[in-house]
Amino acid sequence: GISVVAGRASMAKPLLKIQRYFRRKPVRFFSLILLYLTAGSLVFLHAGFVGDNGPGARGGRDSLIASEMGSWASSDTRGLGLMSRVFKEKRRSGRRFGPPWMKKTRQEGQGMVGRGRDYTSNWKRALKGRNAKDLDDGRAKYIGCYIDDTQKRALRGVSFFDYKKMTVFRCQDNCAERGYMYAGLEFGAECYCGHKIQAPNVSESECNMECKGEKSNVCGGPNRLSIYRLELSQESARRYGSAIFKGCFHRPDNVTLALPFSAVIQNMSVDKCVDMCTEREKSLAVLAGDRCYCGFPTPLFSLHELEDEGMCLNRCQAEEFESCGNDKYFVVYQTQVQDNRCMDRHFLPTRAKQLVALASFPGAGNTWARHLIELATGFYTGSYYFDGSLYNKGFKGERDHWRSGRTICIKTHESGRKEIEAFDSSVLMIRNPYKALMAEFNRKYGGHIGFASQAHWRGKEWPEFVKNYAPWWASHTLDWLHYGRNVHVVHFEDLKRDLFSKLKGMVEFLGLKVSEDRLLCVEGQKDGNFKRSGLRKLEYDPYTPEMRSNINELIRTVDAALKKRNMSGVPEEYMPR
């Protein structure tokens, strides 16, 4: 017993010495604790990045980050995406492993890779590495994994990013709607469109990142594209990939002034004219028999007076089923060249004396209207709120305080006397409630250009949403009509139908001189990156008879309020039939 006690005493002596030492030097004690915690954190982080990388594990971490960081996470998704990209590139192996069939083709193809080469034919080789069931879903065929260089893209059409909700279908949908033949997904969240693949294909193992919006599908990898060939509809095919068919138009009175560049092309085709005008960096390709004109929309050639397409019927020399117009009637295509006449935007040079609201019920097209106003005026719009995702997409006035006086108008969804009377005047956007409610429901559950899931539409969320939001649609308009000073009403549907004149009226209401060239430029890029694709539609009517009865009554109330103030009532399509 004595020996046991002695042993314990001898063990306690070193501990007592350590305790006395740290009492005399507490700073060293806390430093040691800090080092211990730091080391533990690093071990934990390392385990998180190199441990289980399965869909469940990574999805759990993503959701944890989203829930912990809330709105900040959604406002800086690009930063988070780049951060994860760094970690993923570090994990990649230096060696490349591919299926046996790739080795031979890679050896045969060495020395044949050149800049600007069209690699579209390589897709047949890539097909061998995929199950046929995965390739064709009636909408698109998977081609393979391709290199993408940030300096020289494999697909050189339009592009867009979504670091939270990107899916294969969404990328295909957007590219097909714009008439492209190919859609490519990269880094799990980036979508690129194009008419040609201008890069070589690589091993399937290098396209290894899951889509941000659907963990079951692959969306490329770091500097790697998962490319699909799209099955275009007849309407889309008329766009000839990168060019959009605008219609048949009468020859302008002064054609050399309206369309300053032209050339005669032997064996004329739509592609040849579009390619020439694209190289000349013009947004319009105009076919007149064997002559191709290039230019921009101007008051001399505004594209506002469409002619019957039969007037332009004249077979192209090189293409039997294409029409190339004639001396009197021109066939017009819009190229992918950006018209920069309306792209410059600035803050107001001097502080605004009056605050102008851009007011709307959520889902009524406020973000789209801001895009149009900024392009038409050259000045940034502000917001009563702060949305980081909109700031990252180019709305630089989003970060300013709404009373700063540096923006041309201020977005707001507020209603109520105090909030409305804070503004000196207002542009009031009104949209069909049936459309506005669905748009806001999609935004709430799918983001600014995303979509709510079928589970949300069929669950309890949708009926509850309509019950709460439908009355607000009416009260929002009634409050602004009642309390607002100097209200300029714009109906979303009228703006879509007659963008030039309605937008011109909005610019004049804002007290600015109208530039017709800028307005024509806006018409060419009216959608921007803030439009949901119209191709994804519900397969059923989400509104019950009871919902429709209540909403129809609200429409009648708003219509009567507008007419009482000597304004035109709601557009015809709002009214119950």
Automatic annotation (TrEMBL):
<dbReference type="InterPro" id="IPR000863">
    <property type="entry name" value="Sulfotransferase_dom"/>
</dbReference>
<keyword id="KW-0812">Transmembrane</keyword>
<keyword id="KW-0677">Repeat</keyword>
<dbReference type="InterPro" id="IPR051589">
    <property type="entry name" value="Sialate-O-sulfotransferase"/>
</dbReference>
<feature type="domain" description="WSC">
    <location>
        <begin position="139"/>
        <end position="231"/>
    </location>
</feature>
<dbReference type="Pfam" id="PF00685">
    <property type="entry name" value="Sulfotransfer_1"/>
</dbReference>
<comment type="similarity">
    <text>Belongs to the WSCD family.</text>
</comment>
<dbReference type="InterPro" id="IPR002889">
    <property type="entry name" value="WSC_carb-bd"/>
</dbReference>
<keyword id="KW-1133">Transmembrane helix</keyword>
<dbReference type="GO" id="GO:0008146">
    <property type="term" value="F:sulfotransferase activity"/>
</dbReference>
<protein>
    <submittedName>
        <fullName>WSC domain containing 2</fullName>
    </submittedName>
</protein>
<feature type="domain" description="WSC">
    <location>
        <begin position="242"/>
        <end position="336"/>
    </location>
</feature>
<dbReference type="InterPro" id="IPR027417">
    <property type="entry name" value="P-loop_NTPase"/>
</dbReference>
<feature type="transmembrane region" description="Helical">
    <location>
        <begin position="29"/>
        <end position="49"/>
    </location>
</feature>
<dbReference type="Pfam" id="PF01822">
    <property type="entry name" value="WSC"/>
</dbReference>
<keyword id="KW-0472">Membrane</keyword>
